[in-house]
Amino acid sequence: MCPSLTDGASASTDRSEMVGIENTNVGRPVPTNGVNGHANGHTNGANGHSSSTQRRNPYAPRASEFLNNVANFKIIESTLREGEQFANAFFDTKTKIAIAKALDAFGVEYIELTSPAASEQSRADCEAICKLGLRCKILTHIRCHMDDARIAVETGVDGVDVVIGTSSFLREFSHGKDMTYITKTAIEVINFVKSKGIEVRFSTEDSFRSDLVDLLSIYQTVDKIGVNRVGIADTVGCANPRQVYELVRTLRGVVGCDIEIHLHNDTGMAIANAYTALEAGATHIDTSVLGIGERVGITPLGGLVACLYAADPEYVKSKYNLPMLREIENLVAEAVEVNVPFMNPITGYCAFTHKAGIHAKAILNNPSTYEILKPEDFGLTRYVAIGHRLTGWNAVKSRVEQLNLTLTDEQIKDVTAKIKELADVRTQSLDDVDTILRVYHSGIQSGELAVGQKEALDRLLREHREAATRERGETEQPQVVAAAA
Amino acid sequence: MCPSLTDGASASTDRSEMVGIENTNVGRPVPTNGVNGHANGHTNGANGHSSSTQRRNPYAPRASEFLNNVANFKIIESTLREGEQFANAFFDTKTKIAIAKALDAFGVEYIELTSPAASEQSRADCEAICKLGLRCKILTHIRCHMDDARIAVETGVDGVDVVIGTSSFLREFSHGKDMTYITKTAIEVINFVKSKGIEVRFSTEDSFRSDLVDLLSIYQTVDKIGVNRVGIADTVGCANPRQVYELVRTLRGVVGCDIEIHLHNDTGMAIANAYTALEAGATHIDTSVLGIGERVGITPLGGLVACLYAADPEYVKSKYNLPMLREIENLVAEAVEVNVPFMNPITGYCAFTHKAGIHAKAILNNPSTYEILKPEDFGLTRYVAIGHRLTGWNAVKSRVEQLNLTLTDEQIKDVTAKIKELADVRTQSLDDVDTILRVYHSGIQSGELAVGQKEALDRLLREHREAATRERGETEQPQVVAAAA
């Protein structure tokens, strides 16, 4: 179970407060990704651990699974296609370009854009983005139709996804009868696109509710024609991981080309499904920032990266600019006017917060996520902690001690009242709180301040702020360096 | 791929707007949960579909898996234990009681409370909740220590979870040496609790990073002593579904008692891990409302219920009061001052919204989630749709047509301006918009209103509001009946 509140001091009575803590890896061996020397065919994650063996990362891809692509995949970032279908997405050209550039800087291998055949604006935006000289490849998708193909190939995209109609078409599909038709049109479109030196992908919708034999027939056919990649989709967002594993694994044995997967999140399993698809041999995962898309969207970029990072941190760090994640999520969140969910992996308000009320030490001694998900790898070094209007003086006292300041309990209660007052206006970050504590402390030390002297404290804080502003030479901004969403 | 914006009309140019749609199951056969007549050992979800075969639900538990508990499980709702460890949870007794009652009414089989040994307040709250006469069983957890046990058994709880120290203890565990110690203390505590007629569970922390043999030894021992249930935990929230499956499946072969699992959500896989654990034979899943808990919390109640409902809707509907889900989430969200995430399964702002800009008909024709996740089963019948300040007259026109009102394009543009103006103040729900449209329409029809007559429209809206208020006999509240979070 979780580190419980039974370990030590009174907990829930005193409105347990949060205490900011530094990530201190207290001398534990860092888990490595070395292959488990005991290659015994068992596929569980445990390992023997005499002190001479390097500790294996139990979340790493299993060496026994040679098809496992958990550390060998590419991301097709679809914020500018799937994301456009999000209820509140109204991206103008400027915003699309900003998002495209940010995603490119983050390091995704592909970005996907709304079909240029959808509208004149889509076509213009597509061309504009293709002209940006991005490092990532640019993809779009079209209906299986020569008209769309002709438009798409002129935009400058690197790849085109040919989608086979709707799933109702698939459902009505009977053995053999329409295969000739599919093959004929698909061949024409695929060959045309290929003749332009452009990558071709072929996808179906609602793959998990499609007839398996029909599905495999289609994919086998287009694989023979020579597509670069086939795609499957959980369009209704209800597939479960082992089901995904099996379909991808089956498909893996049928086609030689790459396999892409597009997973909706209606039952909250899109990240896990993506992970499991990679285990089965998929090569490309569709994502969008914060998962935005139709309904509750698809596999979120940040969540996927977090879980793959847990499996192989070095691989993921080498591919993506992890510290940019928060910035990208904020960019998109602002554009679509949502809040980053409080429980978002890594970047959510709570991702690295702990409930105090217990000695900070006890928190450090508990099984720590930090051995796996290191906040500093994502550019996060501080945790939103105290500074809530319900903050109690105990939490403040912990922080005072962490800062090596000397204050009496009475003084701590006094400064806590000030923190709570400011927190009523806006939540104070840990740095805000540290500033208040240091100013208070030095005021006490110098004799300029005593308990209960509110005006004196206000003056000292104001002077400090003005001095800091002059140093920075910019308009006054509250100094906020926190992991708050 | 997803229903794309290529199907028909201009899409992304005109800032595609949302249109509220009713859930209309347009004559498609409802998927059933009947066992696939073709019991062929293949474990994929597809099926042949001649019109004479009833369509099998591809998300249902597989008949070939007799250990599969996806349709045979219990929920241990831990909002009042794990949830208390959420950064911003400060539940007073009144709130705890309200949450306990709500969870009981929802139908969870167990609720778990913070240890009564943690503080006097925890003990008092535990007793208070035990006295409520709830239908669900009440559990708490304690350290493996007689002092805690003595306190717990007097509170009136139905069950006690004995947690074996910390995982650092487990990690230092060497074969055989401390087993005697564990067994001795555990036997004493377990037998003591059992002698009081109280259920006993035995859990470990950080099970996925523990030595497998040690883990299985401990569980085997306590199983022999006679616990009701053993629990495993992904304390760091990084386990993946197939890894979970294997550990649970292995454990399933070792112990005869029930198996509970507690899954953290740091990499966003807690729901999927819970689902997969049930497939492997787990019997009990720990949840909390919105998943609140330490860091980003654990398996969320709503998300888990959504995914298990997709697998077996009748079973889940028979156990839980699904329409209460939204109310419970709002209750807890308010108590901990968070927003229900916009992409929350079922109850999130976006769960049933579609991006319009395309004919509403095209949306209805696309592969629809509604065949699987029916909003009305969760008491949701309307979708937040138009009413955003970027709403275009096209979306309003769609709604006018849906309401069978007759307005010219010029009149529609006129009323759209009013909606946008009101939406600048606050987002208008679909009912707000319907009201505006009906008032506008009847004003036009009666001759009291013409295009451009802003004051007349304001007056009509005001009169309508006052009449509605008098009818309801309450202080004026904007009438909002929407699925908005």
UniProtKB/TrEMBL annotation, chains A, B:
Cellular component terms per the entry's GO annotation: mitochondrion
InterPro entries: 2-IPM_HCS-like, AIPM/Hcit_synth_CS, Aldolase_TIM, DRE_TIM_HCS_fun_bact, Homocitrate_synth, LeuA/HCS_post-cat, PYR_CT
Keywords noted in UniProt: Amino-acid biosynthesis, Lysine biosynthesis, Magnesium, Manganese, Metal-binding, Transferase
Cofactors, names only: Mg(2+); Mn(2+)
Region of interest (Disordered), ranges: 1-57
Compositionally biased intervals (Low complexity): 32-49
EC numbers, comma separated: 2.3.3.14
Signal peptide range: none
SUPFAM superfamilies, sorted: Aldolase
Keyword Nucleus: no
Segments passing through the bilayer: none
Domain Pyruvate carboxyltransferase residues, every copy: 73-326
Keyword 4Fe-4S in annotation: no
GO biological process, one term: lysine biosynthetic process via aminoadipic acid
GO MF entry, a single one: metal ion binding
Pathway in which this enzyme or protein is active: Amino-acid biosynthesis; L-lysine biosynthesis via AAA pathway; L-alpha-aminoadipate from 2-oxoglutarate: step 1/5
Family label: Belongs to the alpha-IPM synthase/homocitrate synthase family. Homocitrate synthase LYS20/LYS21 subfamily.
Descriptive protein name: homocitrate synthase
Species per Swiss-Prot/TrEMBL record: Schizopora paradoxa
Organism lineage string: Eukaryota, Fungi, Dikarya, Basidiomycota, Agaricomycotina
